[in-house]
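Ops channel
N.P.: pipeline sanity check, posting one input/output pair.
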C-alpha cells in the first residue's frame, strides 16, 4: 500500500539525514525501497494518468518540509537537510505531519505570510478531515467523481431521447471525434425501414477514402449477440470493411469474442464509453467552469 504524503515526511527527512544533496528522483527511489513498494505500486498513476502516485506524494511531502525549513534546495530538484531538520530528527519524533509542522515557527510564518486568516481556518478543517491524499490528488479524484456522476446523468438523459434523436446524436459524436468534415459532408442518417440494420454512414476521413457504417441502439438490457451477428451480416452484404455498434447498455462477453474473430472490423461502444466520449468531445454539454493547474517554469528562472 502506498503511504499518504504526510506519512512520507519523517522517512524523507531520515533519508536526507546523511547531509548529502539528493536529487528528487533519487529520493523517490529510496522512499519506494524504504516502504518496500511493489513494482505495481511504484507505477500506479493518478486518475489523470499524468504522474505516478508515489512521485506526487513524495513531491508534496518535500514541499511541506521546505516550507517548514527542515530541508533546503541548493539547486534545481536537489535537496539537503537543514540544521533545523537535524534538530527535529534528534528529538526522535514518532511522526512528522501537518499538525506537527504547524507548531514550528518557520511553518507558521509561511502560513501567515501567504494564507489569509480564512484560508488558514479552511486549511485546518481540511487537516482535521485528512484523507491521506495530496491537494493534487484530492482535485483529481474530485474531478473523476464529478465526471462519473455527469456520465451517469448523461446516459439516463440519452435513454429518454427519441430513436431519431439518438441516431443523429451518434453521428454528431463521430463527427466531433474527427470523422469526415461537416455533418453534411461526413454523416448520413439512414434510420429507415429496410435499412439492413444500419442507422448511419460516415466517412472515415475528410477525403472520404473509406466509409464506416453505424448501428445505434437505445437498449436497457444487455445487447443480444444476435444483434451483433445481424449487423455483421449487413456489413458483408454491402462489402463494408468497418462498422461501429453503439448501445446505451452493455454487451455479453461472446459479443466481443465474435467481433474479434471476423472481418469486417466492428467496434463495440457500450453506454459507459458512449457517455465518456460525449464528455471528452463536449457533445450535448456546456462548460461550467475551467480550472488551470500551473507550476513554476524552472527553465525561465535559470540565469
Amino acid at each position: 500500500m502506498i503511504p499518504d504524503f504526510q506519512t512520507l515526511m519523517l522517512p524523507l527527512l531520515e533519508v536526507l539525514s546523511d547531509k548529502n544533496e539528493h536529487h528528487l528522483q533519487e529520493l523517490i527511489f529510496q522512499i519506494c525501497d524504504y516502504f518496500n513498494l511493489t513494482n505495481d505500486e511504484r507505477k500506479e498513476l493518478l486518475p489523470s494518468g499524468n504522474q505516478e502516485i508515489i512521485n506526487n506524494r513524495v513531491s508534496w511531502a518535500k514541499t511541506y518540509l521546505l516550507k517548514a525549513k527542515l530541508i533546503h534546495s541548493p539547486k534545481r530538484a536537489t535537496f539537503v537537510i537543514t540544521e533545523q531538520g537535524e534538530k527535529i530528527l534528534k528529538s526522535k519524533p514518532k511522526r512528522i505531519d501537518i499538525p506537527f509542522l504547524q507548531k514550528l515557527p518557520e511553518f507558521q510564518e509561511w502560513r501567515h505570510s501567504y494564507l489569509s486568516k480564512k484560508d488558514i481556518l479552511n486549511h485546518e478543517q481540511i487537516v482535521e478531515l485528512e484523507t491521506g491524499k495530496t491537494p493534487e490528488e484530492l482535485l483529481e479524484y474530485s474531478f473523476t467523481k464529478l465526471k462519473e456522476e455527469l456520465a451517469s446523468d448523461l446516459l439516463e438523459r440519452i435513454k429518454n431521447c427519441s430513436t431519431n434523436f439518438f441516431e443523429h446524436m451518434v453521428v454528431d459524436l463521430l463527427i466531433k471525434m474527427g470523422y469526415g468534415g461537416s455533418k453534411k459532408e461526413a454523416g448520413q442518417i439512414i434510420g429507415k425501414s429496410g435499412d439492413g440494420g444500419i442507422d448511419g454512414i460516415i466517412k472515415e476521413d475528410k477525403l472520404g477514402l473509406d466509409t464506416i457504417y453505424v448501428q445505434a441502439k437505445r437498449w436497457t438490457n444487455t445487447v443480444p449477440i444476435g444483434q451483433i451477428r445481424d449487423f455483421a451480416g449487413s456489413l458483408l452484404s454491402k462489402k463494408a470493411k468497418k462498422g461501429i455498434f453503439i448501445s446505451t447498455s452493455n454487451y455479453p462477453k461472446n459479443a466481443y469474442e465474435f467481433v474479434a474473430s471476423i472481418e469486417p472490423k466492428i467496434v463495440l461502444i457500450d453506454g459507459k464509453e458512449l457517455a465518456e466520449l460525449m464528455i471528452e468531445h463536449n457533445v450535448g454539454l456546456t462548460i461550467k467552469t475551467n480550472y488551470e493547474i500551473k507550476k513554476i517554469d524552472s527553465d525561465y528562472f535559470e540565469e
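N.P.: looks fine end to end. Residues 135-159 form the longest helix (25 residues).
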